[in-house]
Amino acid sequence: MTLALPQHAPAPRGDRPRRPSRPRVLSIAGTDPTGGAGIQADLKSFAAHGAYGMAVTTALVAQNTHGVRSVHVPGPAFLREQLDAVSDDVEIDAVKIGMVADEANAREIGAWLDALATARTDSGLPRPWVVLDPVMVATSGHRLLDAGAEQAVRDLAARADVVTPNLPELAVLAGQDVATTWDDALHQATSYATTSDTVVLLKGGHLTGATSPDALVAPGTTPDAAPVVTTFDAARVHTLHTHGTGCSLSAALAALRPQREGWAEAARDAKAWLTGALRAGSALRVGTGRGPVDHLHAVSPVAPG
Ligand SMILES: Nc1ncnc2c1ncn2[C@@H]1O[C@H](COP(=O)(O)OP(=O)(O)O)[C@@H](O)[C@H]1O
Ligand SMILES: Cc1ncc(COP(=O)(O)O)c(N)n1
User: Fold this and answer.
1) In this prediction, does ipTM exceed 0.90?
2) Which one, of 206, 111, 204, 196, lies nearest residue 157 by Cα?
């Protein structure tokens, strides 16, 4: 299937190569000291895909495989200092945004992305690819985004190339009830993608069927053109260990995009990799709750048992 996706604003290429062999990819997210979700998971996903990983912290989260205990948000001023420290020095190829925590952080990240796009255009360079995982609530049920910050996340989504909601997050973005079937979810994603002019990677992990499908939904390139939907199916893995799946998938997508022709190819490969990581997760023996996936399954497999 041919996928027509919005292109980055054309900019002269400059002297340096557009795609280095090892893309420089930045995670902007919260922490998980047990390493299964957030920034720690993102860095492992980046490394598993041959990318050079960097990380800016939005929030320090005391959590483990049983749930979130507390959250500390240093605030937008220090967040901006971290972001500028990276972008003043490093030519970033792709950005993955995860937990933003609150409205002030979301708006600061948006302002930084705008400034970066302008600086890149002025230097004749394309801006980085941007993937937004609109993290709102942890699997354990703890809020990771302040109530009332949803509009700021919608505004941030408008600056991203791809947004990767699970079913409850899509419902918040779309301002509708949570879809209970894959068909309803696809319908909701298509209408959100069209009205917001955003590419959506819809994740079906919260459904309960024999498969766990994802779908890339791209709005039509003209007002009359139909949206383009590319579905990626995978057998559902029967496991407790799904902590950090959304973080790991969106990070893989950001790491792969500079190394693939388009979002569909990157999403297909990220999904296949994540399914392998889910299958291998139970052999890790990390924590006594809902454990992480094995980011290194393809690099150095662990024997089950
Ligand atoms: N049990 C499972 N078996 C296979 N894939 C799964 C399973 N649970 C989640 N996934 C996949 O993991 C990714 C994250 O999905 P999801 O759980 O919907 O998002 P989130 O982690 O943000 O809540 C998606 O690619 C989804 O299809
Ligand atoms: C810092 C951070 N970011 C995201 C998640 C969501 O992951 P999950 O839904 O698997 O709990 C998390 N628990 N912590």
Assistant:
1) yes
2) 196
